[in-house]
Amino acid sequence: MVEMQVQAENINEKRDFLDELEDPYALYEDEPVNNAPYEELDLKEIVKQEKKKIKILNISDIKKGGRAGFSLYRLIPYLFLILGFIALKNNNLLDISTYLPSLLLGIVVGYISSKKLS
Prior knowledge:
- 64% of the residues lie in helices and 0% in strands.
- It has 6 helices and no strands.
- The protein has helices at 2-7, 17-22, 43-53, 59-69, 72-90, 96-117.
């Protein structure tokens, strides 16, 4: 079967999966760059070729993203967070003037510690 496809020159070279993840639009390909002067370039044709390379979002991609966005692993922590804020507010324990500076302090400490690691 493979030999028949090779004889028919039906060779479909596909990029590696990791290469597609890292460079989905093939920006770092080793294709020669057209160094022709501006006057010799057919800009309309170049634009048409680049538009062909752009992938259009289809329904199956939207479904995949939707399933990941509405995953229980993502929704349960948000539900817990919202219920926590409601419980604090109902018990008069939520003080925004204390909460926001504390949140800022956590962000600053996280930023500094991530800078030290890298």
